[in-house]
Amino acid sequence: MTTAPITIAQISDLHIKRPGELAYRKVDTAAALTRCIAQLNALQPPPAMVVASGDLVDRGLPEEYAHLKRLLAPLALPLAAIPGNHDARVPLRAAFPEQPYADPNDALNLSVALERLDLLLLDSSVPGEPHGLLDAATLTWLDQTLARSADRPALVFLHHPPFATGIAHMDRQALRNPDDLAAVIGRHRRTRLIAAGHVHRAVLTSFAGVAATICPAPNHAVDLDLTEARVPSLRIEPPGLHLHVWLEGAGDQGRLVTHFVPIGDFEGPYPFFAADGQQL
């Protein structure tokens, strides 16, 4: 007998500004988030959790967080959120006071027990800087939290990717101490996923022997420039989110599958077969 899958939706890089403002004078990120929430609410089965992996707002302003909270109000699913380089810790903590932060004053790390899984959300933000760094306290917390169990699968989320993507201007803003993270992950083999944001593109690789992804954004994409032929730029491409699905069956240790989910209205579903079983 198989058990029901556990689904975790990941969204990232919302970049909410004050009401009426556009990101980069081009992108209506508030409208994009509204469409994203409608997509999340329509998913079946409903995800057990939505993880927002940073850059919730654009400039870390209290007014932006107030606007974000209004936009999030229709979300019918539990939410856990961590900061990115565009966020500010103090107003983010004030906007989400109900979150069980591991430290009451500093980095906004979170641990969420979700049925048979542990979600570990790391604050990789560096106040006032675009790059990421996991401070010593965060690494110690991660090490100790992973050590509490040997067999519960763990999914690790953070904003800054701990690996290069080939997009040079984004790689210069990536996590500055990936080796420190890799050392912790290597001591605890229950980690099944490293999931980041920051790059506004769907990316897949491995890190420290673990599957690693970057979540796309619901608004705009970073230009896929692998040769530094252009100045840092954005593109308006199909928006999306990631749906991480934990599958577990009899005699199976379980596996994680990540789906790219485009945001928008698309035709279908249309059946492959007629009522008599013949392919249409």
What descriptive keywords fit this protein?
six-stranded mixed sheet; alpha/beta; 280 residues; 20% helix; 6 helices; five-stranded mixed sheet; Purple Acid Phosphatase, chain A, domain 2; 23% strand
Structure at a glance:
The protein has 280 residues and is α/β, with parallel strands linked by helices. It has six helices and 13 strands. The strands form three sheets. A six-stranded mixed sheet has the order 4-5-6-7-9-8, with helices on one face. A five-stranded mixed sheet has the order 3-2-1-12-13, with no helix packed on it. It has a two-stranded antiparallel ribbon with strand order 10-11.
List the helices and strands and how they pair.
Layout: E1 6-11, H1 29-42, E2 49-53, H2 62-72, E3 79-82, H3 89-95, E4 110-114, E5 117-121, H4 136-146, E6 154-157, H5 168-171, H6 178-187, E7 191-196, E8 203-207, E9 210-214, E10 221-222, E11 234-235, E12 240-247, E13 255-262
Parallel strand pairs: 1-2, 2-3, 5-6, 6-7, 7-9
Antiparallel strand pairs: 1-12, 4-5, 8-9, 10-11, 12-13
